[in-house]
């Protein structure tokens, strides 16, 4: 099979772009959720204006936000690592082979 250098470069550039997006996602996750966590724990209270709500119950949603975003980050990680996760591809190939064998058996049965 002949692989053209242009295609190889395009694929490599696509992977690098995906990786940059992933690293950006991690950075934003850490910055935003770090800030929210510091806000929730009261570490930033001295820096906030007087009118800003400082009661801890006001920030109960932050834990759910971190958890949901972490799940999304895990999914992003799995998508990025899809080339290394061969289990799914091998499973797919086994299923195709199984159905081909079944169909072949049905055809041979009626010959």
UniProtKB/TrEMBL annotation:
The keyword Membrane applies. Keywords: Membrane, Transmembrane, Transmembrane helix. The chain crosses the membrane at residues 21-39, 59-80. The keyword Membrane applies. Residues 10-101 form the 2TM domain. It holds the Pfam family 2TM. This is 2TM domain-containing protein.
């Amino acid at each position: 099979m002949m692989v053209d250098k242009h295609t190889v470069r395009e694929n490599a550039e696509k992977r690098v772009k995906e990786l940059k997006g992933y690293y950006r996602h991690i950075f934003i996750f850490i910055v935003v959720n770090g800030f929210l966590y510091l806000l929730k724990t009261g570490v930033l209270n001295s820096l906030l204006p007087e009118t800003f709500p400082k009661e801890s119950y006001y920030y109960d949603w932050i834990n759910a936000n971190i958890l949901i975003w972490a799940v999304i980050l895990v999914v992003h990680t799995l998508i990025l690592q899809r080339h290394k996760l061969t289990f799914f591809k091998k499973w797919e190939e086994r299923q195709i082979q199984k159905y081909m064998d079944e169909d072949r058996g049905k055809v041979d049965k009626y010959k």
